[in-house]
Structure formats: C-alpha cells, structure tokens
Design goal:
With 261 residues, the chain is an alpha/beta fold. It has a domain of 174 residues: Rossmann fold (3-Layer(aba) Sandwich), CATH 3.40.50.300. The chain is globular.
Length: 261
C-alpha cells in the first residue's frame, strides 16, 4: 500500500502520533496492520473508508478497548510504556456512533458523572453545561431520562457530555448518522470553536464527499490498512489523479483491483 505524510506547517509537531503494528479482537486474527498517522493541534483529520474497513477499530484502539494491540501511541512527544495511553484517557472525548446511556440516570446525572470523573465542581458544571444545553436544545429535558429520548436527542446528549470536558482531542465516530441537518451544523460549529481553543478532531465516516469539505487531512483506510494519507493534494498525487479530482474518485483508484475482503 502507498502512504504519504504531509509536512507540518505549524512547526509545533503532532499532538498525537499513532503507530499500530497489529490490532484486533482475537489473538491471531488482526483487523489492523501497519496503521500509522499523526494528528496536529487544531486540526480536523478524517479517518475514512467503507463500512468494515477498520475505522471504528482504530478508535477503540486509541481508547484502549482492544484486547489485542501491538503498537505505540506518543502523546505530545512523550513516550513510555503506559504513560501516553493514560494521558490520552484524560485528554480525549469520545463521541460514539451509538449513544452510551445509563438507564436510571437523568441527563443531568450523566453530566454530573462526567464532571466527577474529571474533578469538575458543581458550580463549574453548571457554568459550562448551560450554553451547551441551549446550543443543542436540551435545556427542557435536563431532568428527563435519555433512555426515553429519540436517537437524535440521545446523540445530542453525547455531544454535550463531550464538549463539557473541553478535551485536547475529540474522537467522533460517524458524526452524520442520527443527527438532523441543523444538529450537524451545530456540531461542526462547536467543533470549530474547540479547534480555535487548540483542540484537535479525528472523525470517522464513510461519506467521503462530506469529509472532503470538512477535513484538513485524511487517512484512507482499506481492508485494515492505510491506502493513503495526507492532504487532498497529497491523495490526488498518490492516486495518480489530477488536481481537482474528488476524494471519492482518488480512493476508488487506489483500491481498484484489490479483491481482499
């Protein structure tokens, strides 16, 4: 497979460097092989590919949720056996495709739990959560049980929890699923505000045309490996396509004739 790494125009170095040599759910049956990329401060990186390519598995690996993992994660230039993973767990907010809910917790109790994990005071929780609840139109439901919410409202609750934590890195899994167009715009606007604060975003999607408009750089995943990575111009060059070629056509060119499962 062909790969490419773009230069870092900021000169600050990456926030996170990921090097997955092999990872999966069962011993001897790796889903990912030789997946390496970085994420820079204030950057939105698209982790792209078809369903089943390994995108969500990469997310779970970054969260330390894979039973079989051989690789390394370097956080802000700091290395070590366990330290980077511990630091990432404190500096990441994960927005999953399927909302994660506690059946007997109200929306406010979900927020209190997230605040408690990070040592946030009740006063700070109220101050941070109020504008987020207004932005995602959940103020009226703050004492209701999210288990009874619509899928869209449940997803918005996950967004409120994530933004409440003000992390350095957002992991966003399939952000366009379950949200109406207005909520998608609110999500993107909120992410842009966080990027101005210095936070970075890694998002997965199989909708390449949307990602092309939203992301600064791309990591194209195919069959558990990297087909290409870099800016759109990098991807066009790697795929042998001229400037102006859509990302979808570049990806199709890169994987043409590949009959792997």
């Amino acid at each position: 497979m062909t790969t490419q790494v773009s230069n870092d125009p900021s000169g600050q170095g990456p926030l996170v460097e990921v090097d997955i040599r092999e990872a999966g759910y069962e011993s001897g049956k790796p889903i990912l092989r030789d997946v390496a990329f970085d994420i820079r401060r204030g950057e939105r990186v698209g982790l792209l590919g078809p369903n089943g390519a390994g995108k969500s598995t990469i997310m779970k690996g970054l969260l330390g949720q894979l039973p079989h993992w051989r690789g390394n994660v370097v956080w802000q230039g700091r290395t070590g056996a366990d330290a980077p993973r511990r630091e990432m767990s404190r500096s990441i907010a994960y927005i999953p495709e399927q909302p994660i809910l506690y059946e007997r917790f109200t929306l406010w109790e979900h927020l209190q739990l997230a605040a408690a994990v990070t040592g946030m005071s009740e006063e700070e929780l109220k101050e941070r959560s109020a504008p987020l609840l207004r932005r995602f139109r959940l103020t009226h439901a703050v004492y209701d049980y999210p288990i009874r919410f619509s899928k869209g409202m449940q997803q918005k609750m996950m967004l409120v929890v994530a933004f409440l934590l003000e992390p350095e890195l957002f992991l966003v899994d399939e952000p366009f699923i379950g949200l109406d167009p207005a909520a998608v715009m609110e999500l993107l606007e909120a992410l842009d505000e966080e990027r101005r604060r210095g936070a970075s975003v890694l998002l997965t999607t199989h909708v390449l045309d949307s990602a092309e408009r939203l992301c600064d750089r791309f990591v194209l995943i195919h069959a558990g490996g990297i087909a290409a990575k870099g800016t759109l111009q990098d991807i066009q060059m790697i795929s042998g396509r001229p400037a102006g070629t859509p990302l979808f056509d570049c990806f199709r060119a890169l994987t043409a004739g590949d009959d792997r499962p």
